[in-house]
Amino acid sequence: MLTRLKRYFSIRILGNPDIRNPREDDVELYKPCDVIVDWPREKKKPFVGLTRDTNENPHWTKYRRFLKNNGFDFEIFEYHRSDWLEAAKNFDLIIWSPNSGPAELDEIKRKIYILEKKLGKKCFPDYETLLLCDDKVMSTYFLKMNGLPVADTFISNDYHEIEQMKTKFLFPLVSKRFHGASSREVDLIKNPAQLSRFSRRAFSFYGKKCSNAYFRQKNYVYLQRLVNGDGLDVRVNVAGNVVTGYFRKPKRNDFRASGSGIVIKEDLPLEAVEIALKTYGLIGKAMLGVDMMRDREGKFWIIEISPFIGVITPIQMKVDNVPGCYFLLEDGTLEFKKDNYWPQELAMKNFLERNYLLPEAEWKSNFVLSVVSEKKLKRNFKG
């Protein structure tokens, strides 16, 4: 708390530059399992450029652990510098560790586009993944295009359409800004008059204020049906054939579960796992977090997805209070093991297999979609 106050005083009051140094953390603290990729001896490994992030729970330290454990040569890539393009030529693969925030993501998107689309460099995550990263509007379009059970969502950049529709909506509605995590910029709109006030601010000359002092919500609304049910938000993480997850509970007198800090690590509902696996297979990225809520009829609805998962601990699930994860087998069995992994390392393994070792069709693990479509999922618990 004191550190945040000092930073606020330095940046907001004194006007000092908002410069943050890359974070370090103890990646061995929770005794995670090693993630090892089966790399053929005769195949040359790519030389890796590793970027560093300043997030409170950094990504880059997990990638560094993976690279060291798998014998990849790498150097730190200082991509903020003016000579970033020249420096990038030295690497076969660049691993990006995105910082949170629209300005940071905009910088990375531009540079990954140039490296991938114009110079033929491999990047993790790739450009398409970055389009989905911390962008609720884009990810909702992807979900709808693929016929996935996303909660009813209204997205419009037309002020007059919003005014025409306001009396037809079933309130309350959940308003979200296109980016942001932990329930920041999430509001409950209870009636047409409140929606009118909200949209007038969003479509005003200056836009609507947000938690980012330099960024505003401008010329759009994102409105989602409030899923009335048990109030719990279930998160299912999928990376390859490894499945983890947990529940989040809102604070008293609040509807927002994400960001509440109340996490319940219990076994996952099979229906939620099925939806997450189907979503993962159709989106086709190295890892995916799927947030869902269950309505009163027991049906799960997707409220958000995240192709880039940040965590505090590799212990992301417990069954009967035993930490571990599920491994999805080809016959549809979810085999529980007492193994815990950093999701960043699992994603890195999947990316390397897809781009260097396996044909595209094989990597996409067609058995995942067939297992889900044929309703073959079942559980098996092992020590």
UniProtKB/TrEMBL annotation:
Coiled coil: none
Alphabetical list of Gene3D superfamilies matching this protein: ATP-grasp fold, A domain, ATP-grasp fold, B domain
Molecular function via GO: ATP binding; ligase activity, forming carbon-nitrogen bonds; metal ion binding
Keywords: ATP-binding, Nucleotide-binding
SUPFAM superfamilies given in the database record: Glutathione synthetase ATP-binding domain-like (SSF56059)
Name of the protein in question: RimK-like protein
GO cellular component, one term: cytoplasm
Domain ATP-grasp, residue spans: 140-333
Organism of provenance: Mesotoga prima MesG1.Ag.4.2
PROSITE patterns hit by this protein: ATP_GRASP
